[in-house]
Amino acid sequence: xxxxxxxxxxxxxxxxxxxxxxxxxxxxxxxxxxxxxxxxxxxxxxxxxxxxxxxxxxxxxxxxxxxxxxxxxxxxxxxxxxxxxxxxxxxxxxxxxxxxxxxxxxxxxxxxxxxxxxxxxxxxxxxxxxxxxxxxxxxxxxxxxxxxxxxxxxxxxxxxxxxxxxxxxxxxxxxxxxxxxxxxxxxxxxxxxxxxxxxxxxxxxxxxxxxxxxxxxxxxxxxxxxxxxxxxxxxxxxxxxxxxxxxxxxxxxxxxxxxxxxxxxxxxxxxxxxxxxxxxxxxxxxxxxxxxxxxxxxxxxxxxxxxxxxxxxxxxxxxxxxxxxxxxxxxxxxxxxxxxxxxxxxxxxxxxxxxxxxxxxxxxxxxxxxxxxxxxxxxxxxxxxxxxxxxxxxxxxxxxxxxxxxxx
Length: 408
Ligand SMILES: C[S@@+](CC[C@H](N)C(=O)[O-])C[C@H]1O[C@@H](n2cnc3c(N)ncnc32)[C@H](O)[C@@H]1O
Ligand code: SF4
What we know:
Blueprint: E1 6-15, E2 17-18, E3 30-31, H1 37-57, H2 59-62, E4 68-80, H3 87-100, E5 105-115, E6 128-129, E7 133-134, H4 138-142, E8 147-153, H5 157-161, H6 169-181, E9 186-192, H7 204-212, E10 218-223, H8 233-236, H9 242-258, E11 262-265, E12 268-270, H10 277-284, E13 290-292, E14 297-301, E15 308-313, E16 322-327, H11 329-341, E17 347-348, H12 349-352, H13 358-373, E18 383-384, H14 388-392, H15 394-404
Parallel strand pairs: 1-4, 1-13, 2-3, 4-5, 5-8, 8-9, 9-10
Antiparallel strand pairs: 6-7, 10-12, 11-12, 14-15, 15-16, 17-18
Helix pairs in contact: 7-9, 13-15
Bound molecules: S-adenosylmethionine and iron/sulfur cluster.
């Protein structure tokens, strides 16, 4: 059987370098040595070019999909690490990479760059930093970046001091000023449930309302979870208990809602039409996307829920290797249910019903009543859409749901 080529319109690039490491970070990252950044970047550029060829030529990856065609990008996302440290050399690389591979943008494309307040640390407003490494944002705008995502985490100085980040809160405000004054469309990351000397140290609503005056179009609010076993015990002991974190999450969600933000995914809030297009493609689970960079993860699908393949690059800049997971109908369906429940689209229980047996259907309806009575839903049967409280209990709802669908 022959297949049409698989069209891909989303690309993620992982920039794995950071100037220094934050004490809670579990992401794959490599320290960026300022003296050698030119040679490190040139190695990284070679890695990206070679890994792109490897993905495009991989029989194991695309045999079932008739090959891969990537063009007319709807979304491009450069995440990290600290991609803003890539500076003008990164912007130049991306420009050449897209031209060389004949990749153009769709007319309504979204191109996001993650930016750290630390690029400002020499206070030369996004010009040359250290006379060599630069954090130039205007040159990214020139190659098409039209959305910025900033890791703020907190603007409470006591709480901030326990995160061991290498920029200052003042840097954060200088960056916010710059973004507002230069009309950037941008998103802010906050973390809640952060360690603090005293649980009452932090007022998340006050923090959000302070930064909201800078006019961001989007927020991501993540529950702090230091997975690394080496995260210091004395800090772990300062993490608030589960009830306090739930309360903080619900307060943040309710404040952002009152300011006109739509709670469109467990951790994400956007003004109308400012949802992250890139992440929405992940959550739909029926669109292919490519990923490049160590520890990044791409996905190819036939878009009909019958066949999929996920690949993850090894944590190694010197050897380009990726693991491949083949996904069948059942895995794709379970993933789709999980990812849809993460969003305000939810799922249609009737679409799931025909594949459940009679007993499972009865259980599903009973569970629905229970969830509804506990304030976990914002919908009437057969729609299953979670409320903010439901998002907090997503994992246990998924457990209930999977128990109902044992025969799948
Ligand atoms: C891909 S990370 C990288 C962002 C950037 N390197 C920075 O630190 O600002 C994106 C976001 O994930 C969140 N994050 C990072 N580590 C986390 C952790 N251990 N638990 C919860 N959220 C975390 C932070 O809000 C961060 O801004
Ligand atoms: S800057 Fe971001 S990616 Fe780098 S160590 Fe800190 S949290 Fe991790």
